[in-house]
TrEMBL record:
Pfam family of the protein (one): Acetyltransf_1
Record flagged with keyword Protein biosynthesis: no
Protein name: GNAT family N-acetyltransferase
InterPro entries: Acyl_CoA_acyltransferase (IPR016181), Diverse_Substrate_AcTransf (IPR051016), GNAT_dom (IPR000182)
Ranges of residues in domain N-acetyltransferase: 2-145
Amino acid sequence: MVEIDFLTESDRAEWETLARGKDTYFDVERTDADYERTWRRLIDGGQVHGIAARLDGEMVGVAHYLFHASVWYSGKCYLADLYVDEKARRRGVATAVLEWVAQEARDHGFPGLYWNTLEDAPARALYDKVGRFHDGLIYYSYRRSVSPGGTAASGTVAGGTVAGSTVAGSTVAGGTVAGGASAVSGNACLGVRALPGSP
């Protein structure tokens, strides 16, 4: 049976192992300071929430999410990260995590659970069962700085198909945050990788 609860201080080492596993899978490089900053956000009781999923007492999955207002709809819950260790996949862990987060979102008045995934993500086999696909959405991130010559000095505008979903009766924004701004993360193999500009 999958057991799910909020992350606590004693979970740090296991959480970081899974977080680094997720980043390795997606070929994302982070510094030790990045992990420390994110860990503090997850357990300091602020806007960002973190949970752990366990099988037989061993942490095998993590998820990170946040609640936010919406312009046109009820409050939203953005699932930023969902990762399940490869050895524990296809045992109901990701489904249990999605259901847990959906219930948590409803209980706090943010029933619109949504997430985004890569177009070719193997995890879509699950997401297509529990969610609703929104075809045709494209992800952009604002180019934050411009060099004196007028060209982008850093940042990119990324284009890609975005999939949104509905879980346990919650309406999905399909990649739209607060009724207008796009936010994206990529999840594959029951993992999620936040892209630049996502919450």
